[in-house]
Amino acid sequence: MTMRPRLRRFALVAHVAASVGWLGAVVTSLALGLLGLTSGDAAIVHAVYRVLEPLGWTTLVPFSLASLATGLIQALGTNWGLIRHYWVLFKLAMNLLATGVLLLYMQTLGYLADLARTATSDGMLQTPSPVVHAGGATVLLIVALVLSVYKPRGLTPWGQTRTVNSNDPEYPSARRAGITLD
Amino acid sequence: MMTSQRHPGAKTGMPRWVKVFLLIGVALIVLIAVMLLTGHGPGRHMPHALELPVASR
Protein backbone atom coordinates (compact mmCIF):
# COMPACT_ATOMS: atom_id res chain seq x y z
CA MET A 1 0.00 0.00 0.00
CA THR A 2 1.66 3.21 -1.15
CA MET A 3 0.64 6.71 -0.19
CA ARG A 4 -0.36 9.37 -2.68
CA PRO A 5 2.43 11.90 -3.44
CA ARG A 6 0.93 14.74 -1.34
CA LEU A 7 0.41 12.51 1.66
CA ARG A 8 3.87 10.99 1.14
CA ARG A 9 5.52 14.43 1.25
CA PHE A 10 3.56 15.35 4.36
CA ALA A 11 4.67 12.10 6.01
CA LEU A 12 8.27 12.83 5.00
CA VAL A 13 8.09 16.32 6.51
CA ALA A 14 6.70 14.82 9.73
CA HIS A 15 9.49 12.23 9.86
CA VAL A 16 12.25 14.77 9.22
CA ALA A 17 10.76 17.17 11.80
CA ALA A 18 10.53 14.44 14.46
CA SER A 19 14.04 13.17 13.77
CA VAL A 20 15.60 16.64 13.70
CA GLY A 21 13.77 17.46 16.93
CA TRP A 22 15.15 14.29 18.51
CA LEU A 23 18.71 15.12 17.42
CA GLY A 24 18.34 18.65 18.78
CA ALA A 25 17.06 17.37 22.13
CA VAL A 26 19.92 14.85 22.36
CA VAL A 27 22.53 17.52 21.62
CA THR A 28 20.91 19.77 24.24
CA SER A 29 21.16 16.91 26.77
CA LEU A 30 24.80 16.43 25.81
CA ALA A 31 25.52 20.13 26.38
CA LEU A 32 23.75 20.06 29.74
CA GLY A 33 25.56 16.86 30.72
CA LEU A 34 28.91 18.46 29.91
CA LEU A 35 27.95 21.52 31.93
CA GLY A 36 26.95 19.35 34.89
CA LEU A 37 30.17 17.40 34.64
CA THR A 38 32.54 20.33 34.36
CA SER A 39 30.92 23.10 36.37
CA GLY A 40 32.43 23.99 39.73
CA ASP A 41 29.22 25.61 40.91
CA ALA A 42 27.03 23.28 43.01
CA ALA A 43 23.84 25.18 42.14
CA ILE A 44 24.46 24.75 38.41
CA VAL A 45 25.26 21.04 38.78
CA HIS A 46 22.10 20.40 40.82
CA ALA A 47 20.00 22.41 38.34
CA VAL A 48 21.41 20.40 35.41
CA TYR A 49 20.54 17.03 36.96
CA ARG A 50 17.09 18.29 37.93
CA VAL A 51 16.31 19.53 34.42
CA LEU A 52 17.62 16.50 32.48
CA GLU A 53 14.69 14.31 33.53
CA PRO A 54 11.84 16.67 32.48
CA LEU A 55 13.80 17.47 29.32
CA GLY A 56 13.83 13.74 28.60
CA TRP A 57 10.10 13.23 29.20
CA THR A 58 9.04 16.36 27.29
CA THR A 59 11.39 16.18 24.29
CA LEU A 60 13.59 13.07 24.01
CA VAL A 61 10.89 10.44 24.54
CA PRO A 62 8.13 12.11 22.44
CA PHE A 63 10.49 12.90 19.56
CA SER A 64 12.01 9.41 19.58
CA LEU A 65 8.58 7.75 19.49
CA ALA A 66 7.38 10.21 16.82
CA SER A 67 10.49 9.50 14.74
CA LEU A 68 9.88 5.75 15.03
CA ALA A 69 6.18 6.03 14.14
CA THR A 70 6.66 8.42 11.21
CA GLY A 71 9.60 6.33 9.96
CA LEU A 72 7.45 3.20 9.95
CA ILE A 73 4.70 5.07 8.06
CA GLN A 74 7.26 6.44 5.61
CA ALA A 75 8.73 2.99 4.94
CA LEU A 76 5.47 1.06 4.72
CA GLY A 77 3.69 3.79 2.76
CA THR A 78 6.31 4.00 -0.01
CA ASN A 79 8.04 1.57 -2.31
CA TRP A 80 11.14 1.70 -0.13
CA GLY A 81 9.51 -0.84 2.15
CA LEU A 82 10.56 -1.73 5.67
CA ILE A 83 12.85 -4.71 5.06
CA ARG A 84 13.60 -4.32 1.36
CA HIS A 85 16.70 -2.11 1.60
CA TYR A 86 19.51 -2.54 4.09
CA TRP A 87 19.71 1.18 4.88
CA VAL A 88 16.03 1.31 5.85
CA LEU A 89 16.43 -1.86 7.93
CA PHE A 90 19.47 -0.46 9.73
CA LYS A 91 17.68 2.82 10.45
CA LEU A 92 14.79 0.88 11.96
CA ALA A 93 17.14 -1.20 14.11
CA MET A 94 19.05 1.90 15.25
CA ASN A 95 15.81 3.71 16.07
CA LEU A 96 14.51 0.76 18.10
CA LEU A 97 17.85 0.44 19.92
CA ALA A 98 18.08 4.15 20.72
CA THR A 99 14.45 4.37 21.86
CA GLY A 100 14.81 1.26 24.04
CA VAL A 101 18.00 2.50 25.69
CA LEU A 102 16.41 5.94 26.18
CA LEU A 103 13.34 4.50 27.90
CA LEU A 104 15.59 2.45 30.21
CA TYR A 105 17.85 5.43 30.84
CA MET A 106 14.92 7.63 31.91
CA GLN A 107 15.03 5.69 35.22
CA THR A 108 18.61 6.83 35.72
CA LEU A 109 17.72 10.43 34.89
CA GLY A 110 14.89 10.20 37.44
CA TYR A 111 17.34 8.83 40.00
CA LEU A 112 19.79 11.66 39.31
CA ALA A 113 16.99 14.25 39.56
CA ASP A 114 15.92 12.83 42.94
CA LEU A 115 19.51 12.94 44.18
CA ALA A 116 19.90 16.54 43.03
CA ARG A 117 16.57 17.45 44.65
CA THR A 118 17.39 15.93 48.01
CA ALA A 119 21.09 16.67 48.15
CA THR A 120 22.19 19.24 50.64
CA SER A 121 23.91 22.38 49.49
CA ASP A 122 27.10 21.11 51.07
CA GLY A 123 28.05 18.95 48.19
CA MET A 124 27.31 18.16 44.58
CA LEU A 125 27.16 15.05 42.50
CA GLN A 126 28.85 14.81 39.14
CA THR A 127 28.73 11.81 36.83
CA PRO A 128 29.83 11.29 33.21
CA SER A 129 26.81 9.02 32.60
CA PRO A 130 24.54 11.59 30.84
CA VAL A 131 27.45 12.70 28.64
CA VAL A 132 28.27 9.11 27.66
CA HIS A 133 24.65 8.25 26.85
CA ALA A 134 23.86 11.53 25.04
CA GLY A 135 27.17 11.31 23.15
CA GLY A 136 26.39 7.78 21.99
CA ALA A 137 22.89 8.82 20.95
CA THR A 138 24.29 11.78 19.00
CA VAL A 139 26.65 9.50 17.06
CA LEU A 140 23.82 7.03 16.38
CA LEU A 141 21.44 9.72 15.12
CA ILE A 142 24.10 11.29 12.89
CA VAL A 143 24.81 7.86 11.35
CA ALA A 144 21.04 7.49 10.76
CA LEU A 145 21.01 10.94 9.14
CA VAL A 146 23.88 9.97 6.83
CA LEU A 147 22.07 6.76 5.86
CA SER A 148 18.92 8.77 5.07
CA VAL A 149 20.75 11.19 2.80
CA TYR A 150 23.15 8.81 1.02
CA LYS A 151 20.80 5.80 0.86
CA PRO A 152 23.64 3.33 0.22
CA ARG A 153 22.72 0.62 -2.23
CA GLY A 154 21.98 -2.89 -1.16
CA LEU A 155 18.86 -5.03 -1.28
CA THR A 156 18.07 -7.57 1.40
CA PRO A 157 17.45 -11.16 0.27
CA TRP A 158 13.73 -10.46 0.76
CA GLY A 159 14.00 -7.26 -1.26
CA GLN A 160 15.72 -9.06 -4.13
CA THR A 161 12.76 -11.37 -4.54
CA ARG A 162 10.32 -8.48 -4.92
CA THR A 163 9.35 -7.07 -8.28
CA VAL A 164 10.32 -3.48 -8.91
CA ASN A 165 7.43 -1.25 -9.87
CA SER A 166 9.44 0.96 -12.18
CA ASN A 167 6.32 2.77 -13.39
CA ASP A 168 5.98 4.51 -10.06
CA PRO A 169 7.54 7.97 -10.53
CA GLU A 170 8.36 8.16 -6.85
CA TYR A 171 10.25 4.88 -6.86
CA PRO A 172 13.99 5.33 -6.36
CA SER A 173 16.21 4.82 -9.35
CA ALA A 174 17.41 1.34 -10.18
CA ARG A 175 20.92 2.44 -9.33
CA ARG A 176 19.88 3.39 -5.81
CA ALA A 177 17.91 0.20 -5.46
CA GLY A 178 21.10 -1.73 -6.11
CA ILE A 179 19.93 -3.44 -9.27
CA THR A 180 20.63 -2.99 -12.93
CA LEU A 181 17.64 -3.21 -15.21
CA ASP A 182 18.45 -4.43 -18.69
CA MET B 1 35.90 -0.81 -19.20
CA MET B 2 33.88 -3.84 -18.28
CA THR B 3 30.61 -3.41 -16.52
CA SER B 4 28.64 -6.11 -14.84
CA GLN B 5 25.09 -6.53 -16.05
CA ARG B 6 22.66 -8.10 -13.67
CA HIS B 7 19.22 -9.29 -14.50
CA PRO B 8 16.25 -8.20 -12.43
CA GLY B 9 15.79 -10.77 -9.74
CA ALA B 10 19.42 -11.85 -9.86
CA LYS B 11 20.77 -12.38 -6.33
CA THR B 12 23.53 -10.04 -5.25
CA GLY B 13 25.88 -10.42 -2.31
CA MET B 14 25.79 -8.40 0.85
CA PRO B 15 27.55 -5.01 0.36
CA ARG B 16 30.68 -4.35 2.41
CA TRP B 17 29.11 -1.45 4.30
CA VAL B 18 26.34 -3.77 5.48
CA LYS B 19 28.92 -6.23 6.86
CA VAL B 20 30.68 -3.40 8.70
CA PHE B 21 27.38 -2.15 10.15
CA LEU B 22 26.45 -5.68 11.21
CA LEU B 23 29.76 -6.13 13.03
CA ILE B 24 29.40 -2.82 14.86
CA GLY B 25 25.74 -3.53 15.64
CA VAL B 26 26.46 -6.97 17.09
CA ALA B 27 29.31 -5.53 19.20
CA LEU B 28 27.00 -2.78 20.46
CA ILE B 29 24.20 -5.20 21.35
CA VAL B 30 26.65 -7.52 23.16
CA LEU B 31 28.01 -4.51 25.09
CA ILE B 32 24.50 -3.41 26.12
CA ALA B 33 23.51 -6.98 27.08
CA VAL B 34 26.64 -7.40 29.22
CA MET B 35 26.05 -4.05 30.93
CA LEU B 36 22.40 -4.89 31.66
CA LEU B 37 23.31 -8.36 32.96
CA THR B 38 25.99 -6.93 35.23
CA GLY B 39 23.51 -4.57 36.87
CA HIS B 40 24.05 -1.35 34.90
CA GLY B 41 21.14 0.92 35.73
CA PRO B 42 19.79 3.59 38.07
CA GLY B 43 22.15 4.09 40.95
CA ARG B 44 24.82 1.97 39.35
CA HIS B 45 26.32 5.04 37.76
CA MET B 46 27.01 6.50 41.13
CA PRO B 47 30.14 4.48 42.00
CA HIS B 48 31.78 6.36 39.14
CA ALA B 49 30.43 9.68 40.32
CA LEU B 50 32.43 12.16 42.23
CA GLU B 51 31.12 13.76 45.40
CA LEU B 52 32.83 17.08 45.41
CA PRO B 53 32.77 19.91 47.89
CA VAL B 54 31.21 23.19 46.90
CA ALA B 55 33.66 25.28 44.96
CA SER B 56 34.99 28.16 46.96
CA ARG B 57 33.63 31.47 45.82
Structure summary:
The complex is a heterodimer of chains A (182) and B (57). With 182 residues, chain A is mainly alpha-helical. Helix content of chain A is 73%, strand content 2%.
Can you walk me through this structure?
The complex is a heterodimer of chains A (182) and B (57). Chain A is mainly alpha-helical and 182 residues long. Chain A has one domain (5-177). In chain A, 73% of the residues lie in helices and 2% in strands. Chain A has 6 helices and 1 strand. Chain A is elongated, with a radius of gyration of 20 Å. The two termini of chain A are 27 Å apart. Residues 1-7 and 47-57 of chain B have low confidence and may be disordered. By secondary structure, chain B is mostly helical. Chain A binds chain B through residues 40-42, 86, 90, 93, 97, 101, 104, 107-108, 110-112, 115, 121-129, 152-155, 157, 160-161, 163-164, 178-182, and chain B through 4-12, 14-15, 17-18, 21, 25, 28-29, 32, 41-43, 45-46, 48-55.
Rg of chain A, alpha carbons: 20 Å
Question: Count of helices of chain A?
Answer: 6
Task: State the secondary-structure class of chain A.
Answer: mainly alpha
Helix percent of chain B reads 25-40%
Structural class of chain B: mainly alpha
Apparent shape of chain B: rod-shaped
According to DSSP, the number of beta strands of chain B is 1
Q: Which two chains touch over the largest interface?
A: A-B, 38 and 31 residues
Q: How many independent structural domains of chain A?
A: 1
The run of helices and strands of chain A is HHHEHHH
Mean pLDDT of chain A: 88
Q: What amount of the residues of chain A lies in strands? A: under 5%
Distance between the terminal alpha carbons of chain A, to the nearest Å?
Answer: 27 Å
How would you name the oligomeric state of the polypeptide chains in this document? heterodimer
Which labels suit this protein?
heterodimer, A: 182 residues, mainly alpha, disordered C terminus, B: 57 residues, 1 helix, 7% strand, disordered N terminus
